[in-house]
Write a structure and sequence with these properties.
2 helices; 4 strands; alpha+beta; 61 residues; 4-stranded antiparallel sheet; single chain
């Protein structure tokens, strides 16, 4: 299976600033912004999938 076939797309939010965007997610949990190198301007951008927030019962934006 090709590398691009192993990943999926998901909506994610930066924990620091709250910016939302689309990321590629690999089976090992690696998350990379789609079509860009940086998700936002935060120095340490921790990305949380919106589906994880829903499962945790957090409010979505």
């Amino acid at each position: 299976m090709a590398e691009h076939e192993k990943r999926r797309r998901a909506a994610a939010k930066c924990v620091g600033c709250g910016r939302i965007g689309i990321v590629h997610v690999w089976p090992d949990g690696t998350r990379k912004p789609l079509g860009q190198t940086n998700f936002c301007d935060c120095s340490d951008s921790t990305l949380r999938l919106l589906e994880e927030e829903r499962e945790a019962g957090d409010d979505l934006p």
